[in-house]
Amino acid sequence: MQTTGKTYLALQVSLALTIGSSAIPAFAQEEKQATSELVEIISISRKRPESIQEVPIAVTALSARELEAAGVERPSDFISLIPNVSIVDAANVGDTQVNIRGIISTRDAESTFAYVVDGVLQTNPNSFNEGLTDIAQIEVLKGPQGALYGRNAVAGAILITTEKPSDVMEARIEGGVGNNNSQRYSGMLTGPLADNVFGRIVVAHSTTDGFYENVYLGRDDAVDYLEDTSVKGRLIWEATDDLTYDFRGSYSEAKGGAINFNAVFALPSFVEDFGQSAFFNDVNDHEFIFAFNVPGENEQKTTELSLKADWRNEGFDVTTVVAYNNLEEYLLSDGTSASFYGYELTEQCQTDRATLNNLPVDFGGAGRSDLFGDFLSPFVVLPPGQDFQGVYGPYTPSSCDGYQYQERSQQDYSGEIRFTSNDTDSPLQWIAGVYFANIDRDVVVAYGADLGQGFLRQAYVPADGPNPTDLLFDDTFSTTVLSTFGQIEYDVNDKWEVSFALRYDNESREVANNVPNVSASGFNVNTIVDGVVGPINPAFTANPDGIPDREQSFSQWQPKLTFSYEASDALNLYASYGVGFRSGGFNSIGTEATLDFWFNASGAGTPGDAVDAQLIVPDNYDKEITTSIEFGGKGTFLDNRLKVNSAVFHTKVEDNQFFEFFAGPFGLLRAVTTIDELEIQGFEMDANYRVNDNLSVFAGMGLIDSEIIENKNRPLSVGNEAPQTPKSSYTLGISYDHEITSDLQLTTRIDYQYVGETHFHTLQGEETPTIWDFFGTLGGGVPPGPHSQNFSNAQRDAYSTVNARISIEGEMWTVALWGKNLTDEAYLQEVIPAPEFGGSFVHPSALRSYGLELSMSF
């Protein structure tokens, strides 16, 4: 790939589009159109207030007014408005993966962007997906921001500014209803509490049954349902003219569905073996059936506290921050192991199969095609007496697939002290500071038997319990972070500014195993080897006296150098070089041993000898380093009615952390792997045009070209595109304001979004071995192999959505009618390919939604 040539061409296009617009102002002055200017947005992206058009960073900002007009309620709503930024929100509440310029947040690893709320860096991974209420401004920074924002900011930063407490008493109540039995309510109260003390409290509650139905249970509130309640408070004390304290606290509870996936096979050999094309279907053509007997449930409780103090001194300001976060979360759902007959012989599985099978009635079966699909299309569920012969699917209405239980709990403390120059007349501005964090995270992934006796919601259930555990990963991860950072900005002259930022991060990580050294329950036949029931964590095989703790430190210097040039009053240009860092870490102990046994050849007669996948997935993974070069321009034209911003970038990522999902006879396993080297380059542009007093038009475009350069774990993937990264994305919108009367204002906004085709794995059509190669050696229902997977049909199709909102606003009230995905576009939210399983797990997106909302202020 000729990266240099392509980057240079994109740069020419970018600067031509930006500089070419500089001829517009003269024409506009001749026309002398009496139209309103665009509102100037003040950015805090460099930790000091600046005009967003002068900040030498690719940053998109959305004001409170824009957020309201666009109907933004959750992060996915504003993410969709920004080119080259996308989001996946699938498995459970808060399990979001944000892609900024081709770099993805990774499940079970650290985030790829800094998430900052009112100047406080959030370390809780679920903070990002809380409901957005009482927001003053959102800024999305693209490109490595580690120099100022530190750990994990390899892809960018997202800054949230909430509304400040008022010095006068104010209140607001809001309520809304929508389809799918959706309801949303919130209330806000703010005002003075004492001399120089001001408070603000916001309470919000929302609920929805979701779009999809569990056909086995006959319930429309058991799949993608959600109930979310939060209380947020903010207190500002102006202790003196120079000292201000800002205290924030919040508590939220969320309950929702979890693991709402179907499976789509990617096994071309099965098409020939069984004469059925359904074994190699396009994931986009899948017809979803949710029929699990264990309705997925996810419950979270989150507490966040922070205190920020700002002290103004002669020549510099001092800012100190301390924060505490606590997350308690679990999820319970159906399992995947029925395809591998693990619980085939349990009494409950035998009982279920008598009535829950899709063998046609003419052949003595129950013919439940409504639960499994038509017979052999592709699933084959047979009655008792025909054991170890079917082709089962995951997440079924029978108990044959077992269950899974997970926990993601975290408690952390963090703090920062920062010194910032405040002499605005000086050509030299500077920032210096230190940061620390202590994070304890408990991660549980358990798999076990569904005996039809209910479920204990805990990590380990003994063999005599109602849902005994057969596979368990249970670890406590402890992280200590120490950082120091600084930045200088120097005005060389009236046109040129140079800035240099540098940060040093050190993260010490430890992991301790919490799994008891006991055997599996014996209900899963796949845990029995040579008549002996194995341990519930395979790592005990090599460590019979106990699994040792592990520890490792990761450190990195993160520089950023930026040159900015004021080409004219209307145009600012910049160039930057930056480095981002994401700490390495540990997979759950036992990951490597499990995968080696089932998928990698050892010569010891294990199933892996037949598969020989040659996986390299150790129990630890390396740090990720991102290096990026960017050129951009920001123009303001037509008497400040038109803003055009564009940028080109080239990014190199070393040891890009990538989430892999493994399903097999053991149940399921989640792991973080690394792509040794990845290159990404692209172009983006956004424009906002205030046509007249009433009409505004805005648009965005993002183009990305990516390539995997080296990947030792999946060497066949070299040359493929970066996973979960569409080549193109576009946004287009219009906003129309009309004064009906002196007391009534009409506001209409329509947003269109296009997202291009997307691969979700590094393998994108290359054939690799599957666990079916092992089952082919056993005889029975699976013919001899090879049975390689092929993900050429696992790419998500391009899709587009249209959202709209129309409101009428009075002096103290607003009523609005809104709709999202108005064209009812059916597209996939996520595809999770599992190569060694020989298929993908797919999750649908939200369909058309609409509703009415009312707000009143006092």
TrEMBL record:
TonB-dependent receptor-like beta-barrel domain location: 408-822
Signal peptide: 1-28
Gene3D superfamilies attached to this UniProt entry: TonB-dependent receptor, beta-barrel domain
Superkingdom to which the source organism belongs: Bacteria
PROSITE patterns tied to this protein: TONB_DEPENDENT_REC_3 (PS52016)
Topological type in the membrane: Multi-pass membrane protein
InterPro entries recorded: Beta-barrel_TonB, Beta-barrel_TonB_sf, Plug_dom, TonB-dep_rcpt-like
GO BP, one annotated term: iron ion transport
SUPFAM superfamilies on file: Porins (SSF56935)
Pfam family, one: Plug
Keywords, alphabetical: Cell outer membrane, Ion transport, Iron, Iron transport, Membrane, Receptor, Signal, TonB box, Transmembrane, Transmembrane beta strand, Transport
Residues of the TonB-dependent receptor plug domain: 52-157
GO cellular component, one term: cell outer membrane
Subcellular location(s) of the protein: Cell outer membrane
Coarse class of the protein's main subcellular location: membrane
Protein family membership: Belongs to the TonB-dependent receptor family.
Cited PANTHER family: FERRICHROME IRON RECEPTOR-RELATED (PTHR32552), TONB-DEPENDENT OUTER MEMBRANE RECEPTOR (PTHR32552:SF81)
Protein name as it appears in the record: TonB-dependent receptor
Source species: Alteromonas stellipolaris
